[in-house]
Amino acid sequence: MSILLNRLSQLLTFTGQLFRNGRSLIGNRHRGGALTLHIPFSKDFLFRQLFDPVSSTYTYLLADIINKEAILIDPVIEWAERDKTIIEELGLNLKYAVNTHMHADHITGTGRLKSLLPGCRSMISHSSGAEADILLEPRDRIKFGRHYLVVIPTPGHTEGCVTYVCDEQGIAFTGDALLIRGCGRTDFQGGSPEVLYKSVHENIFTLPANYRLYPAHDYNGRTVTTVAEEKLYNPRLSKSLKEFVEIMNNLNLPYPKMIEKAVPANKVCGVFEVNKEEGKQ
Ligand SMILES: [Fe+2]
């Protein structure tokens, strides 16, 4: 009987470890090594992934279904009306429009959303150097209803990049710090391959293996990844620091077409565009 109880306790300890962080499922490049246990969304947590096909940007609408408070992550100015319609149709109140960083490839929708949905406040990291109603500091909590995201600095693509983590749902919004099987470029806006490598390895790859990662973009039709998948299969960040720096310093990418327009506008969180429009009226 005592042997049986001992075995049962060993099994429960193992299962506990598995459910706590899924780490025991990874580490080897064997078949299924990237497959982790799924953490389901809470019933009162709304998650919508929206897309801009021009810049391949994902915008995320999150909300507390019970108290109706909502936030948007990385809205795009051309889609502000779409976002407003969804928010209104679902009977939600947009509390914050949040950016993961100062984008160079599109203008943020935060400024336009503030005028479309009065009461909404813009957010971006203090370290981004951009203006917003609320400048976020490391470990700040973005609260909506009973839910919240924690602000984790992940610089390297830009100086002010942050990742937003929701531990209860087992998800993180990585911006351009980590893309699915890729990462943001590091050759402008204070970017640095060494800093990005450290950010991802110390702040994203240290999250539980089964956390789902939602990036700011995907150019190949993929929508989500996990910590385990990226640790194994990210063709850049699974390499050594030396190899990563070599890869990033030899991308030879063209300058983004939108940068001249997007960065000045995003420096004021898109309010630039709103003022221009208001001036026309
Ligand atoms: Fe970016």
Automatic annotation (TrEMBL):
<dbReference type="InterPro" id="IPR036866">
    <property type="entry name" value="RibonucZ/Hydroxyglut_hydro"/>
</dbReference>
<dbReference type="InterPro" id="IPR051682">
    <property type="entry name" value="Mito_Persulfide_Diox"/>
</dbReference>
<comment type="similarity">
    <text>Belongs to the metallo-beta-lactamase superfamily. Glyoxalase II family.</text>
</comment>
<dbReference type="GO" id="GO:0070813">
    <property type="term" value="P:hydrogen sulfide metabolic process"/>
</dbReference>
<dbReference type="GO" id="GO:0006749">
    <property type="term" value="P:glutathione metabolic process"/>
</dbReference>
<keyword id="KW-0809">Transit peptide</keyword>
<dbReference type="InterPro" id="IPR044528">
    <property type="entry name" value="POD-like_MBL-fold"/>
</dbReference>
<dbReference type="GO" id="GO:0005739">
    <property type="term" value="C:mitochondrion"/>
</dbReference>
<dbReference type="GO" id="GO:0046872">
    <property type="term" value="F:metal ion binding"/>
</dbReference>
<dbReference type="GO" id="GO:0050313">
    <property type="term" value="F:sulfur dioxygenase activity"/>
</dbReference>
<keyword id="KW-0496">Mitochondrion</keyword>
<keyword id="KW-0408">Iron</keyword>
<comment type="subunit">
    <text>Homodimer. Monomer. Interacts with TST. May interact with RELA.</text>
</comment>
<feature type="domain" description="Metallo-beta-lactamase">
    <location>
        <begin position="56"/>
        <end position="217"/>
    </location>
</feature>
<keyword id="KW-0479">Metal-binding</keyword>
<dbReference type="GO" id="GO:0031123">
    <property type="term" value="P:RNA 3'-end processing"/>
</dbReference>
<keyword id="KW-0223">Dioxygenase</keyword>
<protein>
    <recommendedName>
        <fullName>Persulfide dioxygenase ETHE1, mitochondrial</fullName>
        <ecNumber>1.13.11.18</ecNumber>
    </recommendedName>
</protein>
<keyword id="KW-0560">Oxidoreductase</keyword>
<dbReference type="Pfam" id="PF00753">
    <property type="entry name" value="Lactamase_B"/>
</dbReference>
<keyword id="KW-0007">Acetylation</keyword>
<dbReference type="InterPro" id="IPR001279">
    <property type="entry name" value="Metallo-B-lactamas"/>
</dbReference>
